[in-house]
């Protein structure tokens, strides 16, 4: 029992939780910015940029907008952050001492939704028109991108007869896995809010979207949540590919390589496309998302 | 421990200056010169500078134009919305002296009269290199606690 607690705390705080999740997420975010900059012919930010952005925000004074409940203003990012840390701890990365039980996939899906929900509420709470428009768009987009996301995960669960993430990470690579990874990737674009689905945080259009009134510490927490979300969602795709390898170093290497490839593909898409309108994004997910889901389910059941 | 912490925050102030700009009646020349600072040729992102859309996310305020009477209140308002520590850079000759608009009855003619300015970038318009240099100097001032927002708070 005692051991279980130590393992759980290790998983929450170090690997794969807060510390490594943040470092990995910052690394992936830096790579996104650098890669986009290189595609645009610029040099791009230095390696440590997201790290310093975070600490600078921590060091700033926080202004709470008039008429906004301060408790709510601080609570929303904190709840989002805590849920994403718990979600990360469930991820069966190689070498994780983590918590694993039958049905943890369901819990993970719920926890992934929490920061999104907090974002939407934050948009409405801060009483800015821009934030409200952003929140509406994010809420609509959630319904859209969850279709391929949940579809792919459920299809894999049906194929492996298990709702346990550790089984996902141990399963051999098949056509169904690859199709599921593609469906997860399509959903990832909207989950990370990059072009063409950067609709909720459309800069130049609705200023900074949902976080327009957020500043200082709460904004830093939102940014940290975004970094952790990035490592979680990219990691979720990566673990589908580590099954066939036995040595832990090999597993780690494959995990890392797949994550980097996914981020590069995301940013090629982001740099090569323009922002869609929310109705077009919705239509995209409800036609191609359904097509991808049907394909994954068919592959999972037949092959 | 708290020493390391404050050192880290000071360094990150230098490494991550986020920029917001207001046009207070400028002829647009200065604003056009800000855009190339973030283009492939000059690429301000190398020093961590990013253009932000909301004053709430800002560290450095770029102000251009001679501060017309109609924008005066808005400039003050935007300045107050920026969470401290913050630095203000006046772009071009207009916010310093009124420049070609000098003597006009519709301008204040001096940014200093409205908000505390930390750095002036001379020129009409200034070159992008000069603007980037000012951004870098302002971020060093933020690190050392030398901006007027920081000094005036510590006097209180
Ligand atoms: S300084 Fe020159 S370029 Fe800049 S706003 Fe004034 S007149 Fe225009």
TrEMBL record, chain A:
Keywords assigned: Membrane, Transmembrane, Transmembrane helix
Classification via PANTHER family: FORMATE HYDROGENLYASE SUBUNIT 4 (PTHR43359), FORMATE HYDROGENLYASE SUBUNIT 4-RELATED (PTHR43359:SF1)
Full protein name: 2-hydroxyacid dehydrogenase
InterPro entries to which the protein is assigned, alphabetical: ComplexI_Subunit1, NADH_UbQ_OxRdtase_su1/FPO
Subcellular location: Membrane
Topology class, membrane: Multi-pass membrane protein
A GO CC term attached to the entry: plasma membrane
A Pfam short name: NADHdh
Organism: Leptolinea tardivitalis
Transmembrane segments: 6-29, 71-93, 105-127, 139-160, 166-190, 227-246, 252-272, 284-302
From TrEMBL, chain B:
NADH:ubiquinone oxidoreductase-like 20kDa subunit domain location: 27-137
A Pfam family recorded for this sequence: Oxidored_q6
Gene3D superfamilies: 3.40.50.12280
Keyword Transcription regulation: no
Keyword Membrane: no
Cofactor(s) in the UniProt record: [4Fe-4S] cluster
Name recorded for this polypeptide: NADH-quinone oxidoreductase subunit B
Organism name: Leptolinea tardivitalis
């Amino acid at each position: 029992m005692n051991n279980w607690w130590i393992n759980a705390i290790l998983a929450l705080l170090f690997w794969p939780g807060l510390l490594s999740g943040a470092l990995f997420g910052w690394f992936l975010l830096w790579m996104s910015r650098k890669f986009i900059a290189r595609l645009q012919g610029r040099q791009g930010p230095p390696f440590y940029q997201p790290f310093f952005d975070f600490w600078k925000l921590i060091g700033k004074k926080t202004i709470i907008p008039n008429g906004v409940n301060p408790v709510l203003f601080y609570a929303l990012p904190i709840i989002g952050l805590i849920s994403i840390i718990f979600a990360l701890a469930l991820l069966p990365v190689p070498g994780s001492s983590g918590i694993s039980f039958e049905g943890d996939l369901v819990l993970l899906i719920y926890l992934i939704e929490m920061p999104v929900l907090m974002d939407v509420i934050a948009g409405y709470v801060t009483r800015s028109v821009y934030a409200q428009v952003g929140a509406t768009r994010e809420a609509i987009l959630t319904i859209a991108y969850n279709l391929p996301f949940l579809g792919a995960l459920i299809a894999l669960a049906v194929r492996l007869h298990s709702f346990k993430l550790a089984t996902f990470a141990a399963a051999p690579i098949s056509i169904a896995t690859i199709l599921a990874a593609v469906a997860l990737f399509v959903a990832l674009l909207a989950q990370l809010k990059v072009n063409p689905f950067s609709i909720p945080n459309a800069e130049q259009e609705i200023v900074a979207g949902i976080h327009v009134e957020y500043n200082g510490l709460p904004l830093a927490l939102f940014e940290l949540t975004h970094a952790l979300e990035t490592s979680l969602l990219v990691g979720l795709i990566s673990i589908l590919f580590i099954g066939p390898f036995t040595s832990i170093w090999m597993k780690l290497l494959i995990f890392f390589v797949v994550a980097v490839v996914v981020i590069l593909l995301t940013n090629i898409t982001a740099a090569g496309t323009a922002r869609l309108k929310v109705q077009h994004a919705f239509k995209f997910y409800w036609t191609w998302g359904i097509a991808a889901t049907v394909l994954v389910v068919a592959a999972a059941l037949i092959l | 421990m708290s020493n390391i912490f404050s050192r880290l925050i000071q360094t990150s102030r230098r490494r991550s200056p986020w920029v917001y700009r207001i046009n207070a009646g400028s002829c647009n020349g200065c604003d056009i010169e800000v855009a190339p600072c973030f283009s492939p040729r000059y690429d301000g992102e190398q020093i961590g500078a990013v253009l932000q859309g909301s004053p709430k996310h800002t560290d450095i305020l770029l102000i251009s134009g001679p501060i017309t009477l109609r924008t005066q209140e808005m400039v003050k308002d935007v300045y107050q919305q920026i969470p401290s520590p913050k630095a203000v850079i006046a772009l071009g000759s207009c916010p310093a002296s009124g420049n070609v608009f000098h003597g006009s009855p519709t301008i204040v003619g001096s940014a200093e009269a409205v908000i505390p300015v930390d750095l002036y970038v001379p020129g009409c318009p200034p070159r992008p290199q000069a603007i980037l240099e000012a951004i870098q100097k302002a971020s060093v001032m933020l690190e050392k606690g030398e901006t007027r927002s920081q000094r005036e708070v510590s006097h209180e």
